[in-house]
């Protein structure tokens, strides 16, 4: 809930506060696919590379959960796709779907060929699919 996050920050909560596992508000926003919270928390650049107890950055979580639009926004804000978690995995190795993998590959190719220029991803429009939810059988 974006209002709750903003209210807590207004009341003095620190933006990089985390639970006992090192999970920050940005990690939770990425897990939930809460783009409004992710956008709001991205202003705190140090959170983009923050790792939890397992070495996962918000980008690791977003790619695992198949949150393509969140992945695109994180990359555009400066999140590194090269950080390895405690098991030595980079985010691309955890992709839940092809669209998310294509976004990371597009970003990496762009930065190899045209570093310093803005990157966009042509499939970053629309609300995005809830990859995990769409795979559940009820």
UniProtKB/TrEMBL annotation:
Task: Name any one Pfam family assigned in the record.
Answer: Ank_2
Q: Where are the ANK repeats?
A: 54-86
Give a yes or no for keyword Mitochondrion in this entry.
no
The answer to keyword Repeat applying to this record is yes
Q: Which SUPFAM superfamilies match?
A: Ankyrin repeat
Annotated coiled-coil segments of the chain: none
Reading the lineage from the top rank, the first entry is Eukaryota
Q: Which UniProt keywords apply?
A: ANK repeat, Repeat
Query: What's the name of the protein?
Result: Uncharacterized protein
Q: Which organism is it from?
A: Alexandrium andersonii
């Amino acid at each position: 809930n974006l209002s709750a996050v903003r209210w807590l920050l207004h009341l003095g909560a620190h933006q990089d506060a985390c639970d006992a596992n090192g999970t920050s508000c940005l990690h939770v926003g990425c897990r939930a696919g809460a783009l409004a919270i992710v956008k709001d928390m991205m202003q705190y650049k140090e959170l983009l590379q923050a790792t939890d107890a397992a070495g996962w950055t918000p980008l690791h979580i977003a790619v695992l959960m198949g949150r393509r639009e969140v992945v695109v926004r994180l990359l555009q804000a400066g999140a590194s796709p090269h950080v390895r978690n405690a098991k030595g995995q980079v985010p691309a190795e955890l992709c839940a779907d092809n669209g998310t993998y294509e976004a990371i590959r597009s970003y990496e190719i762009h930065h190899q060929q045209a570093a310093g220029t803005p990157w966009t991803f042509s499939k970053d429009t629309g609300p995005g699919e809830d990859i995990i939810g769409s795979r559940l059988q009820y």
